[in-house]
Design goal:
3-stranded mixed sheet; 7-stranded mixed sheet; alpha/beta; single chain; 12 helices; 2 domains; 10 strands; 49% helix; elongated
């Protein structure tokens, strides 16, 4: 029995090696640069908000202060019950930058659907090139629009960005949130790099209005309440029309959850959309996760029985070293250097959390928006 377990362990190690070295490793030392498109077209920034009066008050000035020649803000009030609409109208009166307000009323057919609200906002946008973010986010620099839009050209119509989370000192939860975000970004950036993009995050994403309507927007998954970002990207992204920007000036910064319960609820919503990805992406993501958990489980069993420990232990150390190399250098590139020290421990915790979320989602559906 242990012999079969050992053989399976070797196979799993090889699969994990391929993932880290040949897929995730493609962006470890990679600095993507825009093609010489000299992009200078106007941009519509789209932000959808539901009961976000406080966050909008803090964050909208960062969007209005962007150093870009021509842009507008399309602000969507998605049936808020707080003072969100009043805050938006206040900014519109004072701003020197054009602001459009889309006030979405409750609709029985699309009750609670962010996709419906976003569709109305996209229709209202004056320009073809769209840049998306969230009410609880702010750009990492005044050149965010320039950084993201410079990758647009006649071929590239979808730009993936990194949505970082604000650092909170002496918070273990904050580091777990940021590590999970970092690992997710490494995955979707690397898949884009190898020509198989599968997701993006709505807090930092750009695509053209024409791409949206040519693919019927969210129609194919409108009944799925979540997935306005990753499901849309999974549907329309190709090797030819998609790229990404990993420059720190292109990042957005979000306010992280402050309780473990809130974060788990957020992750349940995110994970629930993965089952609707294309078969290849579901297979690859499932293979990575299953070999992750199997690697550690088999390692524990084999080491406990001291079975072939002289081979098992070095392979565990080799995998950890590869992790530190790939994730460590990526962490530096994404300004997340403080996460490097405890990478294996964060990974083991996330594996356990993902298993819990998977079981929880089987039992009950997560809430949305």
């Amino acid at each position: 029995m242990l012999e079969y377990l050992f053989i399976a362990f070797i196979v799993i190690f090889c699969i994990q090696f391929i993932f880290y070295f040949f897929i995730f490793g493609t962006i470890t030392f990679f600095k993507n640069k825009p093609t010489k498109s000299n992009f200078s077209k106007p941009i519509s920034i789209i932000i959808c908000a539901k009961n976000e009066a406080e966050n909008l008050t803090k964050n909208l000035p960062h969007f209005l202060n962007q150093n870009y020649h021509t842009f507008e803000l399309v602000l969507i009030n998605d049936s808020s019950s707080d003072t969100t609409l009043e805050v938006l109208e206040k900014f519109k009166k004072k701003a020197t930058i054009p602001i459009k307000i889309v006030d979405v009323k409750a609709n029985e057919q699309f009750w609670g659907s962010k996709k419906y609200a976003l569709t109305l906002g996209i229709k209202a946008a004056s320009f073809d090139h769209l840049l998306f973010s969230d009410a609880d986010c702010y750009p990492n620099s005044t050149h965010w629009i320039t950084e993201m839009s410079q990758f647009f050209n006649s071929e590239k119509q979808l730009i993936l960005g990194y949505g970082a989370y604000k650092k909170v000192s002496k918070s273990v939860l904050n580091k777990l949130i940021r590590f999970e975000t970092l690992l997710t970004a490494i995955q979707y950036f690397s898949y884009s790099k190898i020509g198989s993009p599968y997701m993006g995050v709505g807090r930092n994403l750009a695509y053209t209005k024409s791409l949206f309507f040519e693919n019927n927007g969210f129609v194919n998954h409108m009944k799925i309440k979540s997935g306005d970002d990753d499901l849309f990207v999974n549907q329309v992204a190709t090797k030819n029309n998609t790229t990404f920007n990993s420059s720190p000036k292109s990042f957005t910064i979000s306010t992280p959850k402050t309780t473990f319960k809130e974060w788990v609820q957020q992750k349940r919503r995110h994970v629930s959309t993965a089952s609707f990805y294309k078969p290849f992406h579901k297979f690859m993501l499932g293979l990575f996760y299953s070999t992750q958990i199997s690697f550690w489980l088999f390692s524990i069993v084999l080491i406990s029985f001291l079975y072939r420990w002289e081979i098992v232990l070095p392979l565990i150390l080799v995998r950890i070293c590869i992790q530190y190399l790939v994730i460590g250098f990526s962490a530096k590139n994404f300004n997340e250097k403080d996460l490097i020290t405890l990478i294996p421990f964060y990974e083991i915790f996330l594996i356990s959390l993902q298993m819990f979320i998977f079981i929880k989602n089987l039992i009950s559906k997560p809430s949305h928006w």
